[in-house]
Amino acid sequence: MLGAGVAYGVALAGCSADADTPTPSRQFDPADWESVRAQFALDPKLAHFASFLFASHPAPVREAIDRHRAGLDLDPAGYLEHDIELEEKVRTAAGAYLGADPGDIALTDSTTMGTGLVCAGIKLKPGQDVVTTEHDFFGTYDALQKLSSRTSARVRRVRLYDAPAAATAGDVVARLKAAIGPHTRLIVITWVHSSTGVRLPVADIAAMVRTVNSTRAPADRALLLVDGVHGFGAVDTRVADLGCDFFTTGTHKWLHGPRGTGVLWAQAWDAISPVIPSFSRPDAPGRLATPGRLATPGGYHTAEHRWALAEAFDFHAAIGRSRIAARITEHATRLKDGLASIPSVTLITPRQAEMSAGLVMCSIEGVAPHQAAATLRRDHAVVASVTPYDDPYLRFGPGIVNTPDEVERVIKAVASIN
Ligand SMILES: Cc1ncc(COP(=O)(O)O)c(C=O)c1O
Fold first, then answer.
1. Residue with the nearest Cα to atom 2 of ligand 1?
2. Which residues are in the Aminotransferase class V domain (predicted)?
3. 194, 249, 261: residue to mutate for ligand 1 pocket, most atoms within 8 A of CB
4. What domains can be seen in the chain, in order of their start residue?
5. In whole angstroms, what is the distance from residue 378 CA to residue 268 CA?
6. What value does the mean pLDDT take over residues 68-72?
7. What's residue 17's pLDDT?
8. pLDDT of 322-381, one tens digit each?
């Protein structure tokens, strides 16, 4: 098995770029933001402020995908012999990033898949209910609607703030606490709202839930599920330090991991039953039957993407979690300050860094968000997006692919729209 791997390595090295032409990843200097940007194949004519939607892969990730794809195309059965070791590499890298035991990490295809696995697998007693918020993702509502049809459990939505820009941690925690009933078993929240850019104080919320649970039997404790996708790869926090019971995220947004990948981490695996059959079996030697592996949906996947997730974590680690978060905060803060200074613009996202992350939403008086996004692309070569919710806003997601000059360009472009 090892021999086969070496052989593939040699074969693939032989058919990659020739020795005199270093590949972009070999030139990669993680300390230099221009070099970081150069790892992406994004259209240089555009300023990409929506790259968080669905990741563009940096060179090391593209190369890993190509390498695995070539191996699978050459000899699928032979290359698949590396499945376990390649998957373990991904779990080890994810565990280091999350600050978690790799055995507690299920590999998924998306945030949505992780939400679905928890909501479909959670064991509820008659009379137990679920609390979520008015600010969650529509996929979460669908998962909870399915949970409700399956169990008859009541699902309630609580409003955590009225004016997003003025949201405060204390008020958010108090409102959520007031909504938790004596029989609430599951609380579902989103770390950073893709509707407003508000970042919830998840660690404070988890501490509040622990207080609520202090008088409950362990089997009836309220469990906290977090959709973390817009904080993961953007905020300088170890997931394990958030204190939630379940954390689901796609790795194909701010982390710039392979499209169609994600992770579900839990410290309360006992509270859910696996939903999709696993390829790990407790009785099969070598299949490493930890909770995260048993909860990983089985079936063959787009393996070249899944395995290349290790390189996305490595890329992020090489640049540094705190440097990336600081860069995103710097861009977002400048963007919010600039937008707030334009008389026709209303900033929706909180200015304070602790109550926000990389997402920045605004509205322009008299201009529909879709029209503004279209004008930005057509006349200013700026790619923005529009929030897919009832109150649509113009949305920007400055990240590591952007420069301070591009942020200034966006501010000027928005100021010129009327
Ligand atoms: C809050 C939130 N959760 C989940 C998703 C979906 O992510 P995924 O493709 O990883 O399921 C999105 C947007 O795409 C989102 O904004």
1. 137
2. 88-383
3. 194
4. 91-317 (3.40.640.10), 321-416 (3.90.1150.10)
5. 48
6. 98
7. 30
8. 999 999 999 999 999 999 999 999 999 999 999 999 999 999 999 999 999 999 999 999
